[in-house]
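Workshop exercise sheet. Pairs work together: one partner reads the sequence aloud, the other fills in the structure field after running the prediction. Swap roles for the next sheet.
Pair: D.N. / O.F.
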Amino acid sequence: MENNEMILLVRGAQQRDPRCQLALIESFRPLMLAMIRRYIYQTDAVDDYLSEAAIVLLNSVEAYNENLGVPFSGYLKKELFYYFVNVAKVHQNFTSLDLSTNDGEAFSLLDTLADTTDIEGDYVRAEDLSALQMYLPRLRERQRWIIDEHYLKNRSFREIAASIGVSSNSLVKLHRRAIADLRKYFGLDLVN
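Structure field:
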């Protein structure tokens, strides 16, 4: 059962009281960020998706029927889930570069791509790598090791796991913790 304050905020937001709407958006911000982290992999668009989640929240307030006995928080979580799952589906790209071209020749789509050199991108990546190497010593030894193996030696988690006899899932978790720590060091801890 939801607390009275939440019920009053939902009722006020249904009456289009901006203070109640803003208070609801702020109180459900952690839920919205969690959904974005779970279903959207574009880290540069978190603010955009947070705005979209706020719109979903306000639409959910309009559609919410308190008499059905469903807590608003549960109703909103379901609405956000379906919204972000649908967004993730739209952004999936199922085109394979191994498909042959339609003109009957023995070329794949990969063969038709132009070979482009990105000088600015290479410079930015080099700068990022030098900054990364500056912050790597701050990580724990195993975190440094997984970053080195995966990014600097270009090995997959499955390959690393097979070589040391552990599950790739445990390496993925270790990697996530290392990336989270690096984000804190870089000052990019945007989603928390």
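Discussion prompt: Residues 1 and 70 are 9 Å apart (CA to CA). What would you look at next?
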